Amino acid sequence: MTWDRFKQHHLPFPSLGLALDISRVPFPDGFLASMEAPMQRAFAEMQGLEAGVIANPDEGRMVGHYWLRTPSLAPTAAIAAEITQTVAAIKQFAARVHAGELRASRGTFTRLLVIGIGGSALGPQLVHQALGRPGVDRMQVSFLDNTDPDGIDTTLRALRDELAQTLVVVISKSGGTPETRNGQLEAAAAFQAAGLTFAHHAVAITGAGSKLEQTAIREEWLARFPMWDWVGGRTSELSAVGLLPAALQGIDIDAMLAGAAEADTVTRRAVTRDNPAALLALMWYHITDGRGAKDMVVLPYKDRLLLFSRYLQQLVMESLGKEFDRTGRVVNQGIAVYGNKGSTDQHAYVQQLREGVNNFFVTFIEVLRDREGPALEVDPGITSGDYLHGFLLGTRDALSEKDRSSITLTVDEVSPRTLGMLIALYERVVGLYASLININAYHQPGVEAGKKAAGGVLSLQAKLTTALAAQPGRRFTAEALSTAVGSPGQTELAYKVLQHLAANGRIHATQATPWWETTFHG
Amino acid sequence: MTWDRFKQHHLPFPSLGLALDISRVPFPDGFLASMEAPMQRAFAEMQGLEAGVIANPDEGRMVGHYWLRTPSLAPTAAIAAEITQTVAAIKQFAARVHAGELRASRGTFTRLLVIGIGGSALGPQLVHQALGRPGVDRMQVSFLDNTDPDGIDTTLRALRDELAQTLVVVISKSGGTPETRNGQLEAAAAFQAAGLTFAHHAVAITGAGSKLEQTAIREEWLARFPMWDWVGGRTSELSAVGLLPAALQGIDIDAMLAGAAEADTVTRRAVTRDNPAALLALMWYHITDGRGAKDMVVLPYKDRLLLFSRYLQQLVMESLGKEFDRTGRVVNQGIAVYGNKGSTDQHAYVQQLREGVNNFFVTFIEVLRDREGPALEVDPGITSGDYLHGFLLGTRDALSEKDRSSITLTVDEVSPRTLGMLIALYERVVGLYASLININAYHQPGVEAGKKAAGGVLSLQAKLTTALAAQPGRRFTAEALSTAVGSPGQTELAYKVLQHLAANGRIHATQATPWWETTFHG
Fold it and tell me: Please, are residues A19 and B499 in contact by the beta-carbon 8 Å criterion?
């Protein structure tokens, strides 16, 4: 019974070293046929996108991440040449660093500090976690991916004795991302405090003409690599953003690109059943009712893929989480994504998955190869890897028994090639699914609102501190001060900002009861 | 307008250094009053639980994690004495390790390897991440929290040159958790390969009479610490499970316990409005309609709290994700939890939170203190911490504007005391909420099914390998072999197991088309 359905819906793609099993999604027999017309429209749209139409009309941009691994597809020879030259430049730069031709303030570069956030951090973090090998990697990698001062201090403190051997890669397309700019300034201050010239350690990956590029030129940083406006942050892993850190770590970036290119070839097929990306998109559509009605739980049974769910969380939620469809209708789309790794997560929440709210589907990621070298038998004839595999299969069965849907993706191993393949596969799934639900997957209008509001908070803070400084010692409640600075509608924000300033010793607070009578002075 | 609601529903708890803001949850005026009777019942049940009734009837167990930080509350003097003696023994053991009185095979112990999974790993991992200080910690900590052979290899390889200075703490209540047992066996093999006696490096934290205890006694491990049947895994952080690794790392465990005890005092109050745990439970109830209708997105704006959402994911989902209520009615309860940290996650999925499916509420965790020591100005008068704080407030506003609910928890700083307080706070929220929805929060019947199914997979594997070994060279399809071993209903599993064995060179596969004609031989 399940064997028959499995025979029908377990689909190996040998050229990719990938198998897709959709047999545990209870879609009815006619479902694929009923979706064939919209799927063909999605293929046609994807073809247009790959050919260079303005697939992101709101931002007036082409969407070109597929060209990164097959430059010959780029719509102009100039773009193709830029891609090819950039990959060559990355490999050459990494080779010079590894050979000690490009030297740090003192000796060879042995450490790499990557500064970026969102699309400029998660890809490099995923690759670092998935492909790093202690004792084999050419450089040890750390990240600044936030503007948390204590987090920055912790990372820089761990590098303290090795700053002189540290190469810093700053990644920001616009050059204006505050978290990244702050990380850069904090790192530069640490280098200066150590008597080192930051510019002799710094590399920029950024868009042409950005503030970051200007800084890198003015201060004569070691190198610059491009980010193009036709590559979005969340699909930039196979541009310089991901390739430079990977190459510096010693990872085979040609294999990553080749894996992605092979996945592109297969996921470009216009025959739905031969296209794993199309089938995944259709499963998402069926399970979530085309409106995100269920969450996607991503469970790779492999420690190296711990960050893959976080990577997909960004790719899927930022691409699909949209208020309007392409006709301007309010749709509030998206699919929530979470997960860490199996079997670890079984001990955290398989209880709820099996018995609790049925508001999710699981994507299991099965890795066939257990380890390099010989395996210990933990029981007669049984290895640790057999247990890991058994837990995956057991949980998959335990969920099916309770009518919880799951998809299983099987890969041979975790390698540069496989990782490039998985990234490309899911980029295509997201693109096709976006066509099915008729949204623009390539913009992120909702991110601006929070940034703008944060800017408002910082302006308010400036007004508040100026007012307090102008009348030192005079005590104000949040209500009085926000009125005094002409922002009576922002009393709540003013209170929050004043508490934060006081907690950091920058102004004084006299706590009172009720708490809103608390006064602040400079 | 918002200021008035904020005045009413922003509630500081100064003795905890905590404030709870529920003003951004749009519950109507009469809601708290309407829930007062069930809330009082929940308080009464909690009182019974703390007094030692069998609050987990399915397993016939008391639920005693609150006694861990206030032993005087324990129902018997013997239990109280055990708790107190264990904390003293932990501190003494850590002091002897730090002083070099307890020595490794060669020299002082400088590394700590913790082996555990689920409740025996996430707490120690959270504490390690939240409170670790490079250069200050007494020992460097790593974890084996899975049965992934490659993950085990990676962790052990990183420790390779320092195994002689490594103390290993193995944590398993039953002593029978396969992931932990496998991790222990793999680690022991690595010690043996390095010419070291594992027992001279090993400490057990386990239940009385467990297999792990027997091994530790027989092999004369360095020490043993107890796990009690009245402490569940997911609430064991303030037992030896969490306290021993923390003490070894150099963290002030008395402060952790004191923070938890203070939170217990406040969350024991039977006046709803004075009890932050009760208010949080009521907000969960209101927002999720008492049936998990929305996901909980946990966003601490502080790198140190990155794992707090994963910790809560386990605590909440394993406790609340239940098929039956306490009367045996099918309820399929639970609340899905995910999140990493702000502002980083803003770049990953605030797009969807603001614009997409409105199927969640956010819990912001605001930490007032930015960093130790002076702050760099990244703009005139503005620090990196101001940006972090501004992003939190800005995102909070941006979500409210779009009718997305949020709760904000404010703490002064991330310290042992605060962390103990947060852990205790959420343990109480989960307990009270479970009363409101009438479920047993302290068992996990759904976990067994997956384990049992995994056991079935391993039995099947043994049958398959035995059959292949008995007829070397003879080729079987999965279908033929599963029939031959008398498991014709398990052909799908047999195929998966055979593919896994073949990928690891333990049997041979001859791939065919269609794939189910693939044959396997020994």
Answer: no
